[in-house]
Amino acid sequence: MNSVAKLTYKTAKRIAVLVVGSTILAVGVIMLVTPGPAIVVIPIGLAVLGMEFAWARLWLRKVREGISNHSARQRAARVERHR
Predict the structure, then answer these.
(1) Please, are residues 59 and 25 in contact by the beta-carbon 8 Å criterion?
(2) Can you tell me the distance from the alpha carbon of 82 to that of 78, in angstroms, rounded to the nearest whole number?
(3) What sign does the CA torsion over 13, 16, 20, 26 have?
(4) What letter does residue 32 receive in the DSSP assignment?
(5) Exposure pattern of 51-77 as b/e (b: 16+ CB <10 Å)?
(6) What is the residue extent of each domain of the chain?
(7) Per-residue pLDDT tens digits for 3-31
């Protein structure tokens, strides 16, 4: 495979990931104000984008940490109410 074809394939893959990931992410953001599982769809969009873009991996990590922290706080509150 010559360098031009390789460059074209790499660029095409990057554009495809950008379009698919951005679409999924946009649907997730829309679901924040409409009925739907936005909390599931947004990380999926970021994961798709994260295949090619470092900024999306960083955002995905922040979203995961936020969900984890929220879950831990809720668990602690349930424990306190149970006592």
Answers:
(1) no
(2) 6
(3) positive
(4) T
(5) ebbeebeebbeeeeeeeeeeeeeeeee
(6) 3-82
(7) 777 778 889 999 999 999 999 999 999 99
